[in-house]
Amino acid sequence: MLVVMKAQATPEEIQAVCAHIEQLGYRAHPLPGAQRTAIGITGNQAEADRGNLESLPGVAEVIRVSKAYKLASRDVKEEDTVIRFAGSDAAIGGRDLAVVAGPCSIESREQAFAIAEEVAAAGAQFFRGGAYKPRTSPYAFQGLGLDALKIMAEIREKYGLRIVTEALDTETLDLVAEWADVIQIGARNMQNYSLLKKAGRLRKPVLVKRGLSATLEEFLMAAEYVLSEGNYEVILCERGVRTFADHARNTLDLSIVPAIKRVSHLPILIDPSHGTGRRDSVLPMARAAVAAGADGLMVEVHNHPEAALSDGPQSILPSQFHEMMGEIGQIAPVVLRRLPRGIRVEAAAG
Amino acid sequence: MLVVMKAQATPEEIQAVCAHIEQLGYRAHPLPGAQRTAIGITGNQAEADRGNLESLPGVAEVIRVSKAYKLASRDVKEEDTVIRFAGSDAAIGGRDLAVVAGPCSIESREQAFAIAEEVAAAGAQFFRGGAYKPRTSPYAFQGLGLDALKIMAEIREKYGLRIVTEALDTETLDLVAEWADVIQIGARNMQNYSLLKKAGRLRKPVLVKRGLSATLEEFLMAAEYVLSEGNYEVILCERGVRTFADHARNTLDLSIVPAIKRVSHLPILIDPSHGTGRRDSVLPMARAAVAAGADGLMVEVHNHPEAALSDGPQSILPSQFHEMMGEIGQIAPVVLRRLPRGIRVEAAAG
Amino acid sequence: MLVVMKAQATPEEIQAVCAHIEQLGYRAHPLPGAQRTAIGITGNQAEADRGNLESLPGVAEVIRVSKAYKLASRDVKEEDTVIRFAGSDAAIGGRDLAVVAGPCSIESREQAFAIAEEVAAAGAQFFRGGAYKPRTSPYAFQGLGLDALKIMAEIREKYGLRIVTEALDTETLDLVAEWADVIQIGARNMQNYSLLKKAGRLRKPVLVKRGLSATLEEFLMAAEYVLSEGNYEVILCERGVRTFADHARNTLDLSIVPAIKRVSHLPILIDPSHGTGRRDSVLPMARAAVAAGADGLMVEVHNHPEAALSDGPQSILPSQFHEMMGEIGQIAPVVLRRLPRGIRVEAAAG
Amino acid sequence: MLVVMKAQATPEEIQAVCAHIEQLGYRAHPLPGAQRTAIGITGNQAEADRGNLESLPGVAEVIRVSKAYKLASRDVKEEDTVIRFAGSDAAIGGRDLAVVAGPCSIESREQAFAIAEEVAAAGAQFFRGGAYKPRTSPYAFQGLGLDALKIMAEIREKYGLRIVTEALDTETLDLVAEWADVIQIGARNMQNYSLLKKAGRLRKPVLVKRGLSATLEEFLMAAEYVLSEGNYEVILCERGVRTFADHARNTLDLSIVPAIKRVSHLPILIDPSHGTGRRDSVLPMARAAVAAGADGLMVEVHNHPEAALSDGPQSILPSQFHEMMGEIGQIAPVVLRRLPRGIRVEAAAG
Fold first, then answer.
1. CA nearest C29: which of D234, A41, B166?
2. Which tens digits make up the pLDDT trace of B181-224?
3. Cα B7 from Cα B174, distance rounded (Å)
4. CA–CA separation, B176 and B155 (whole Å)
5. pTM
6. B2-63 belongs to which homologous superfamily?
7. Are C273 and C131 in contact (CB under 8 A)?
8. Which among A6, A23, A54, A315 is the top mutation candidate for probing chain B, defined by the most B β-carbons within 10 Å of its own β-carbon?
9. Domain map of chain A by residue range?
C-alpha cells in the first residue's frame, strides 16, 4: 500500500500518518518527492486498512498494491490448471481446445437430441443446455428444470458428451451437481456469494461467467470464493461486457484472455453467442477467440433458431457449427492447440 | 414491434415477412419508405417473437416498441406508490423525504446504538445496518448475522427507527424478514431472480438496489419480479453505476430520478455513499439527490469511520449527518417535500 | 512513481530495476513486502519514464503517483479562480451563480432576440447561441456563422448579456474571439490540441466542455493546454458522459463537481440540456447541479422548440427557464451562493 | 421514423400527431396495438424532424428507423471498397491483408530506418510513424513535424513502403497530404468536422480511427463527412474503446468488424497496440483481429521500446513483429485472405 500526501501536507501531518501506520503494526517508509511525499507501507494484508488512512489530514490518495486474489493467482500456482473428466478424453485448460455447444434452453427431448447429435458429430466434447433459466422478465420461459437435467444425462450416455448447465440458486445447486459434469454460474450470479461458496463445497468443476461489468479482479475474486472453499476446478468464461456500444448485444472483451493468462493459472473459455447476440457475428468472434489464446468456446447451437424459446437470434445452425469447427481446427495449431476429436473434413469442406 | 427491411429487400421477401407475422397470429402493416420498407406489427406480446423475425431474408433490424415491465409501469397505475409503516409516521414515496441512515455493517451493540442515537436525533426515520455483508473478497468481514438483526430490533424499540437491512440469499431471507421492516436486495443481487421471487412472496416492503450496469428497464424488471408475486411494496434505490470515470467509486446517475418518475409509480431513493465512495462527496450528492426529486436518501454514517470494518472511506460522521439534514431540509420545499421530523436547528447550527 | 515487482522476481531483477532507475537520474527506494517488493521512485517528472520500467524483467506493474496537471491544480493555486467581465456584474466562479442561457443555434434575429429578452428578464447574465455547429451528420444544419455572431453582439448591446459561443476550429477561432465574451470549446474538441493551444494564446475566457469519455485528469489536461499558453481564464463544463444507460442521451456526472473542487481551482458549470437530452429532465438536474455545488449552469432555451433546427427535444421553454431560476434561487443560499440579479418573483410565481 | 404513443394517449392526441406529421409533408400510418398506438412515418429524411414529435402531448417515444449514413452504407454500394496505390502492390480492402507497422513517433532518421528495414523484411506494405503527435499533456514530446515527414519519404523510396501518418489539424493537413500516402485522422479528432471535411477535399486515402466512445453510427458518420466531400477512399480503424475494464488501456472491440461488414463497404483495420496498451497483448489480439475478418492491422513496432519517446509499453519488438507476421500468415487462409508479400519463413522460424 502506498499513501500519497498532498503537496501542502505539513511535516507534522506526514509524521502523524507514519505513526498511525506503525501503530497498526506495519512499517512506514516515507519517500519525499519533488512535489509530494509518498509513504510506502509494508507488512499489511487486508483492504480494510485503507479507510483508516484516507481520512487522515494531509492525505491525498491511498494506492493499493497487492492483489486481493490469492489462490487464483499465478503467484501461488505457476503452472496452468487443467481439468480432466474421468472416463473421457474431454479436458479444459490444456493443449486440447474445449468446445461446449448446445441450445440456450432444453425445450424438448427431440430438440436436445437432434442438436446433440450434430455437435457431437462435429467434434464438440461438451453439451450445454439450460434447465433453469435466468430471465429478465418473470413472464418469460423459465426452463424445464429436472426434466431437462434428465434429458441431458441421456445425451451424455448416448453421445459421450460431458454436460454443462447452469445452477441458478442454492436450492437447485445440489440437483444440478448431481446430474451435470460442470456447474455453470451465470453472469448475473457472478457476485452471488452464497451460491459461489456452496459451489465451492462441491467436488465438481465450476464454470464462472464474467459479470456484465466485472473487472478482471472481481472476476478472479468470484473464482476465489469457489477456490477458498476447497474446490480447485474452476473455469472462467468471458461472455461480453456492457458498454455504450450498440452494434452488438454486449462487447466481447477478448483482451481479457492474455490478461488472465498473465496473472492466473485458471482456464478461460469464450462465449461468442452471448458476447455478440447476433448469429452473423458468432463465427468471426469464435475464430478470434481461439486466435487470441482462449482455452475453448461455449456456443449456442439450435436446429430451429427461429422457433427457439430463448436466444434464437444468437444461436447458430448445426451447419454453421460444423463450419466453425473446421475453421477453429485450422487456427488451433497457430496457438499450439488442437481439436482433440479432429476436424470432420467432410463437414468443414461444406 | 417494427421490422425494418434492408434497402435491397425484394417484394417477395417483404411479403414473406408479412406472411410469417400473420402466421404467428399478429397483424402486419407494411410501411414503404423512401429507402426501405418497415413493417409494423400489432397484437404481439412477448419478447420471444423477436428472434423469429431477425433471421428472415431481407430483414435489417427488429425494433421493440412495448415495454417489458407491466406492474411497475404508470400505464397500469398512474398515482405514486406510498409505503407506510403501521404505528409510525415513517413513509416512503409521499410528501415526506425518507431518510435511511446507519453504519455499513453492525459491528457491535455499542457502535450501533451510538450511531442510531445520532441519526434519530437528526431526524432520520429509518436505520440501516448490514447483518449479512456481500464482500468481494471471501477473506473480508462477512457480518454479525442474527446478532446484528437482534441489535437492530432493540434500536427500533428504543429510538422508533424502522429497520432496513440486506437479505443476501434465500436461506437468510426469512430470518431477515422476521426482524427487519424493509428487506434490502443488494446491487449484486439485482438479477438474482430466485431471491427476488421469494421476496415477492413476503408481505414486507422490499428495497431493490440498481445493479452496477443495469438499464432503467432491467431495474424495473427486477422490481417486476417482486411485484409479479403479489408484493406491491417495492422501493427502488440508485447507488451509482459503473463507468470509465475514475474520480469516484461509481458514477451516481441522478437523471434516473426524473426518468423513473416518468414511467413508474414506484418510489426511488438515492444512496450517495456507495454512489461516490468518498466521504467528501456525500453531502454534495445528497443535496443534489433531493433537488433532483428523489423520494429520500440512504446514507452510511459511522462514529469512528477510520476504524470501520467496511466502507469507512465513504461513511460520514454524525456531525456531517446533522449538517446534511439541515441542508436537505432547506432544499425540500423547493421540490414540495419536507423532512417529517423537522430540522433540528441546534444540530444544523453545529 | 512506484514499481511493483512480481512475487517471483529475483533479488537480481530487483537490483537491476533499481540500477535502471538510478541510471535515469532518479532515486530508487526498495520496499520489501510480505509477498512482493515495491520500489518507490523519487525525483522523476514525466510520464515518458513509465515505458522503460514496465518492460524490465520481474516487473508486475508501474503505478503513477504524481498528477499530470500542474497549472490547473490546487497544488499550484489554492484559492478559487473567479473570472470577471469588465463593465458588467457578470462573473464565473465566485459567490454568484453564473447562468448561461439561450438557443442551441442562432436561427434568426427574431428568434435570438425573443429568447434573449426572456432569459435576461429571468436573471441570466450570459447568452449562449451556436454560430458554428458541430453536427454528427454532414447533411444537417451547420449554423449561420458570422451573421449569428453579429446578432449576438447586438444582444449584448441591448440586454447587457455576455456572449458565450463555440469556436469549432482554428480557422474561425479569431472571428469568434473578436465577437464573443467567452469562447466555448465543444466536447468533441476537448482533445483538439491545436485548437486548445490557439485558444490559450488569446486573452479571452475559454469554456472547455468535458469530452464524452474524458476522465477527470484528461478534462483538466485539456484546461492545462489553455493555461500552459498563458491564458488563465478557463471555465470547465460538465455536459454528460457516455455510458451504457439508455434512459437519457448522456449520463450527467454531477459527482465531478466535488471532485474538481478538491483538486482544482477552476470554476465548473453544468449543462443539464446536453447532459440529459430531455426537456423534462432539465429542471431536476439544474436544481441538482446547484445543490451539488456547481458554479453555474448552461441551459438551452427555445421559444419554439418543436421547430428548432437543432436540439429541440432538450430545449426548455422560456416559462420553464423562469421556473428554473426561481427554484435555483431558493437552493443557492444552502450552498452559500446567490443569483446576482435576484429572483424575479413575478416570473417565478408563474 | 416511428412515434410510440403513451398508453393513456387520447384519440385526439393521436389524431393531432398524425396531423402534425402530414403538415410536415410526410405520411402518417397509425398502428393501434394492444396497449399503445404507434404511428409509422414515411417520406421523412432528416434527424431534425424528431424534436417536433417528442414534444407533442401523448407521445411516449420517437424511434428513428433510417440510418444517417448514406455514402458509407452498403445500401448505396454493395461491393467492398478496395483502395489501391499506383506503382505498388499495396492495397487495403481486398484479398490481401494490409499491414501497417512502425514506431509511434519518428524520433530520428536512424530509429526510423532501423524499424522500417525490419518491418519491410517481415512483409509489411505500409510504414507508420508520427510526425505530429496528439499528446494528453502539453509538456510531452509533440513530434518532429516536417523533418519526420521527410524521413518517411526517404523510407518509401528505399523500402517501397507506403506511408501512413497523422494530420493533427487543418493547418498541417496539406503538408501531411503532400508527403504521405494515407492521411490518418486520430481517435481524438474523429469528430473534428473541419478536419474531416478538409480531408474530404483531398484526393488521398484517409484512415479514420474510431473515437474512444464512438458508436458504429458515429464512426460511419465521420467517414461520411469525408465521403460527402467527394473523397471515396476512406479506411476505418478500430483502436479500442473506453470502458470500465482496467486490465488493458482500452477495450478492443473486435465485434465491430462483422458489424461494419454487414452495413458498410469500407475496409476496416485493427490497431491492437492502442487497443490494448500492453506489449504482451498485441500478438494475441493481432491474431484475433485477422481471424475476425479485419482487412488488416496497424501495429506499433520499436527497436528500443524501453527508450521510446511515446507508447513504449505497447510497442512490440521487431522479432515479435516477425513472429506476428508468421502467425497471421497462417490464419489468413481461413478467412480467405493472404499476406501479399508472403511469410518470411526464416523470420517466422526465429
1. A41
2. 999 999 999 999 999 999 999 999 999 999 999 999 999 999 99
3. 57
4. 15
5. 0.88
6. Phospho-2-dehydro-3-deoxyheptonate aldolase; domain 1 (3.30.70.1140)
7. no
8. A54
9. 2-63, 83-349
What Rg do the C-alpha atoms of chain B give, in angstroms? 23
Q: What is the ipTM of this complex?
A: 0.87
Residue C58: list chain A partners with CB under 8 A: none
Residue count of chain D:
350
- Chains in contact with D, counting 3 or more C-beta pairs less than 8 Å apart as contact: A, B, C
Choose among B138, B139, B228: nearest Cβ to A138: B228
Give the whole-angstrom CA distance, residue B1 versus residue B23.
16
A73 CB neighbours in chain C (<8 A) are: 7
Question: Where in D135-294 does DSSP place strands (E)?
Answer: 162-166, 182-185, 206-209, 234-238, 268-270
Neighbours of D230 (CB within 10 A): 11
CA distance A37 to chain C (A): 9
Least confident segment among A141-155, C155-169, C316-330, D331-345? D331-345
- DSSP state letter for B124: -
Q: What is the pLDDT of residues C169-204, one digit of tens each?
A: 999 999 999 999 999 999 999 999 999 999 999 999
Chain D residues close to A333, C-beta within 8 Å: 330
* Interface with chain D: mutation pick from C50, C133, C137, highest number of D CBs within 10 Å: C137
What sign results for the dihedral spanned by CA atoms A204, A210, A212, A213? positive
Residue B310: φ, ψ to 5°:
-155, 145
* Residue of C197, C224, C313 lying closest to D51 (CB–CB): C313
Lowest mean pLDDT among C248-262, D137-151, D237-251: D137-151
Percent of chain D with pLDDT over 70: 91
Length of chain B: 350
Stronger pLDDT, D47 or C209, i.e. the higher one: C209
**Interacting residues of D147 by C-beta distance below 8 A, sequence separation 6+:** D106, D131
- The rounded percent of chain C whose pLDDT value lies above 90 is 68
CA dist D98 and D89 (Å) reads: 10
Least confident of A39-48, A143-152, B20-29, D147-156: A39-48
C-alpha–C-alpha distance, residues B202 and D289, integer Å: 51
- For residue B292, the chain C residues in CB contact (below 8 A) are 284-285, 287-288
Instruction: Please provide residue D245's backbone torsions phi and psi, each rounded to the nearest 5 degrees.
Output: -65, 135
Q: How far is CA B244 from CA A216, A242, C213, C218, D315, in A?
A: 14, 12, 7, 12, 24
Query: What CATH architecture does domain C83-349 belong to?
Result: Alpha-Beta Barrel (3.20)
CA distance A151 to A161: 12
